[in-house]
Fold this sequence. Notes:
N-terminal domain of TfIIb, alpha+beta
Amino acid sequence: xxxxxxxxxxxxxxPRKTIPKIFTCPQCGQQTVKVTVLNMPKSSxxxxxxxxxxxxxxxxxxxxxxxxxxxxxxxxxxxxLVDKYVAGEI
Length: 90
Ligand SMILES: [Zn+2]
């Protein structure tokens, strides 16, 4: 039994900004809150495609949707969820 040498070079990935998309749930404390962008179907041809952002905890089911805003990062939606939760809206 000989050891196989792995001579394969590591593939270098292009540096990419990795923004965390998993957050801690304010309700159950699990790190299971995901931020997902939803593409809504257009209701008419000349309308801008609507986008919504779903923030949902995969553990306890706490969730909220927000209007998509391109200047927002996932963490911003997460903070909005936390704000809503703290305010007792969800
Ligand atoms: Zn939760």
